[in-house]
Write a structure and sequence with these properties.
The structure is a homooctamer.
Chain A (H helix, E strand, L loop, with lengths): L7 E6 L1 H4 L18 H12 L6 E6 L5 H11 L7 E5 L2 H9 L10 H16 L4 E5 L11 H20 L2 E3 L1 H9 L16 H14 L8
Parallel strand pairs in A: 1-2, 1-3, 3-4, 4-5
Helix pairs in contact in A: 2-8, 3-5, 4-6, 5-6
Chain lengths: ~220, ~220, ~220, ~220, ~220, ~220, ~220, ~220
């Protein structure tokens, strides 16, 4: 188990992270962490390692691209001083290029994506002890699908940056890949983006494995 | 223009036909035809051929499979005595096999699909003058996608029955195909099933062409 | 087809244009263009000419007169830098004179109407490539009706300005005229102003014809 | 003043009578008489002739034609045993022929209108002391308007029946006519049917005059 | 008839005047004058004297005392420049002394009442042609009731000021008195303050009589 | 303390008893006893005599007269088999005579009131051990007020029946009388019927005194 | 892993099982399994063993005691023909004795609890292949707490029956016990009954362990 | 009775005090004092000592700790200039340490609790005549429960400060203790904090006893 006693673990991202979390705090009573993978990760941490006293905070905001993250980075990340910072961003950066192809202002192309990520990561690494990067994903098994190809390219940026910044990398696309032989995308997400409980559990399992969570611990 | 003066044109189907139409009537004031392709077809008929006095009725019901159509066939089709009957069914028959793979009671396999269709068509042809069959569709350009393959098979049933029963056939899958070179599915339907205004217009244009609608008529 | 690849087409007007569009943006996902003629025009453009990548924006606001347009012209038109600008205004300028006859502050008389139009058109022509003017209309076949007479006078201003500013002119009153022999106004608009789907389709067809839309293009 | 002490005065009709009255009772506390002409008539009766103890009941139902009245006549009129019975019906019988021209099932043509009226009047006259007939109306000054012509024909039926059955006749069309020189229809009713407070006051004044209401009584 | 062509008549007061009027304007379409005596007065003016083109504005606000009127006097009265100004205030000034006896901050005693009235009347008389004062009232027939006694004292202030400022005086208490022999207060207002339709009609009749409204005019 | 261990105490009545109690049960979790005097009585019983395990049930229904009680007597009283039965009814029997004077069907005159009471009391005394009668009341200090006079007459019936049936009598009118020297009715009930918290506490104190509640018990 | 391919696993119980599941079906799209331990179990099954095609159904109903289960047993269990049946009941049977001590009708004492359980288990074992019994629990670490003592007694019944009927036993009380050294009950359930996400995860982990779920399977 | 004529009694605290009181005022018509112990105290004062004209104000705010009280002390206490000031705070200061153990920012430890209390009491004693301190409480009979132990420690601070500042002390924990022999906590508060009507009555009785309320006064 990689987390130490009393650490704060902050998740930031888009609607997949948000999942109706309490705003603005993103922590506290009454399902404040939302109902997605962040809440599952927290529930497994608290039920299995209560003695570690991990504090989980959810700062996901629906619809966000990396451009939006940059605008709220100071308040939602730097001021929070998290020990661990988990970032999953890029889905909307890509999706808008496909669902709103003619509104180019809404697109975040790959150069801006990478440059903005570098900028916010640089600022974050001064206040956090450990970074976790989750690739953006697309619940589409056809690797020749144009949006899947683009999402994979954005995912490659994340993989490259993870190496560069010594972050723990979680390849979410690969995590979903494991069920594609048995489950059609519609059984996980009607729009191939917003996962149901099964899909969020796939993300949470991938995260927990990446931090060496001990499933057999009582 | 194939419709004659004073004829009643009834549409039946699932959520793509329904589109929040007035229930139970499916016709009348205040956008009673819903906001999908049925309403577009009606608006073009009324604005271009008001002298024909075509009466359009919408009997779509969200979530319906052919099994559901059969249950309400007597009341919603036979009692209505439509001159023209347009049927588009099969999407949910297929979709449930992919989004709820383990709830097999909710699946309508291809034999039941064809047999039930035959049964209701037989009963309908006694009261209607002209049948129109629209294939079920899937807004997925990848013809090797498993759900697309299955949907195409159900579409083939429709094509066969159209020939057999001398119905006008509308190949909706082909209609969508025409924009796939330019538009990604997400620009037409987030879940690849429920079309936005552009998608419904594609369906309506296909229908209007099939009845020899004269676009240049003032 | 008069529009070129990648152009932005902005519609501004009153409730007939607005039709519950997304505010403030007036474009984007989830039926952001509203449910009136703007959405129909867009759906025909996207489904027929997807390769042109036309970006349609709806800036209609219910209840607006030309006086209201002037107040938001800088933000809603100039800043948007549209290639094409379509204006339909004047209905409320006239209507208030008839439904609220004693509240004269709410009336916009014909001189103010023309002068304000000139002012905003002058400012717009510097940023747009092509203007489209739609006359205000009144779904009243009786040309001797006092409000119809007044609306026709405001329409004449539009016709004059179209000539003067080299704008494409769409005579909406004439467009509705074509169905009056068959349909009573109440079949198009209960209050003779807010069109139902048939009425909005009449407006959309007139617009599409004016830009040389090819109905036979697949 | 034609009403006697302790009499019950029942109004029946369509939405113009209904006006959000309490259902099913149509009398009692909390604005149970609705907010239209029935409430105005009642308020003037109670405030001016409280000693007469007139009991006013409102049995209007929105959308009703004479065909609907017949269905609920036994329960809503005969069982109520009103001393005075006021009937205003026919607007929807005519309107549907103009706003839903192709749904002929919804039309009540003039023969059915007259025959049904005769039938319900015959049954009512056995239980009531005095009948009051209000013509259906259309707030349209142009007497050559097709729907106005039709409404006048239905009004003529009412006039004829009033004579035949010795009912007090109230010519509502004529009552509205008196303001047409000064007010455009839109100042009374946006859809030329549902009156605003001014329009309902015109109806109430006509009713009160017909029963010899003394305006100068303190 | 005391009002001249084209005059503006503004009503100000508390909840009895307010009656759910449109805010902030207090005039316009869609029952903007509320559903109390102001709307009845307007409806009788428009239906009987449409040629006078009287513009009625309602600036009543629920719960107001004269202290509240003073705060909004500049905006709601002076800026409006009404030809006629009708004031009914004082009910809450008195009522709070009886329903909230220990919250003395909420009470407006008679000296403050008179002084504040003088102050706002002085400012109003410079912009209006004619003042109308309605006494506050209490729908309580027992003249020895303590709150009735107090309300009568406030009413006496109004009577005195009416004489002093040459205003038309409407003795609303006396108007209600006329029905007390026949109707118990609960038949007009459950809380003896907020009138039902009958009560508002009593107020409206008193107002219309005071301006020499001709009930026999067609 | 007159109640014995384990007894069931059932309250029946109108809106003063109802106070938004849970329906249909009238007991259980989540403020099921409503927010009026029944809840206050229960809270004092449970907090002071928890060892007595008194079960309190509230069967009040807003708007009820004794005529309504009779209709639901079998289900709401007899089937409940209460040890103690507390009845407060008559306010609406009287009130309707004053607020709806012309709707005589809604009035319950004093003979029907007494006879119906006798009938239901006779049936109840077979299943209950002790009856408690609360007089109906009117929060009006003026004993010459016509509705107060009538309410006192109905109260006299209750007093007579209490003696006759050996019931505990609670003179609610007298209970309110005690505060009239200091508090105006509006400080207890805006409509002189529905008490605020102070008024309900007056009722509860009177009830608790009548059952010899020991206020000094810890 | 004890479940076989294609088996149906049905959960029945009270609010801890229900968790806002879809009614009446308890399975299907859109989070139909609710948001409690049933959904977590399902999500882990589907994401880890998709090839097993397990069908999970949730038939929990809030507030239920074993008495309520019996009433709906035929419809909700027997007709469903589940291969696996998981039962968790008894919390409300006990709780009502403590939160509603004087409403003894709502209590289900231990004899009725055991007898009813035997009855429904007998009927279920004929249609299911495997039973799973979860003890009722109380998130209260103090084993001398009176309600905890009682809940433990009901839990003992479950343990005994599990042995007798060869059911898989899950000791939920013990599962919660494991976190009590670190977490106070309020961190898992404000009312010590309804678990938050952490509490439901404790239940789900216990269930998954009991069926030999392989956490390391990819 | 310790309160004198015309005094203002202000209550401040957390959700137990708040109970849905009117905001921001905390006094006035329509149950402005909320539905907890403050309202009960007020109702007993007004119904028993109306001649004292006590003005009760409720300034409780749900979720508050002493840290929150300090922020609003100037506005909600000092500006109000109460003669009597009743403070009950500390429940959330303790509770957050147990229900959100890892969010340490939300905890108010005992030193900060005492110091902040001293600070606000010092400032309040300059404007008030009499202070009343209620200990925070926990409806948990087990005195060895960790949260009960902590709450008792915070209660001891209150007891000490009461002595030091000459405040009337109300030991709420002891007040609840008296019913624990008969009632389980769940019968008073599901979450052992928010009392039902019985629990609020226990608090109100304790308060009224502390001010020498005379229960026998009529």
């Amino acid at each position: 188990m990689k987390l130490d006693k009393g650490q704060k673990l902050l998740f930031i991202g888009d609607s997949v992270t948000d999942c109706d979390r309490a705003k603005p705090d993103g922590e506290g009573l009454f399902q404040a962490l939302g109902n997605g993978y962040v809440s599952i990760v927290d529930a497994f941490l608290q039920s299995t390692y209560p003695e570690l006293q991990i504090r989980v905070v959810n700062k996901g905001v629906s619809g966000n691209t990396v451009r939006d993250l940059k605008k709220r980075w100071e308040e939602d990340v730097i001021c929070q001083q998290p020990d661990w910072l988990s970032i999953m961003i890029g889905i909307n950066d890509v999706w808008r290029q496909f669902d709103s192809p003619f509104i180019k202002d809404h697109h975040v192309y790959i150069d801006e994506y990478e440059n903005t990520l570098r900028e916010i990561i640089e600022s974050a690494r001064k206040v956090t002890k450990q970074l976790v990067f989750l690739t953006p994903f697309y619940i589409e098994p056809n690797s020749q699908d144009p949006m899947r190809i683009k999402m994979d390219q954005y995912g490659d940026v994340i993989k490259r940056l993870a190496k560069e910044y010594d972050a723990i990398l979680i390849d979410t696309q690969q995590a979903f890949q494991s069920v594609f032989t048995e489950l059609y995308p519609a059984a996980i997400a009607w729009d191939r983006i917003h996962p149901n409980a099964t899909g969020h559990t796939i993300l949470a399992k991938a995260f927990l494995r990446a931090i060496d969570f001990d499933w057999t611990k009582k």
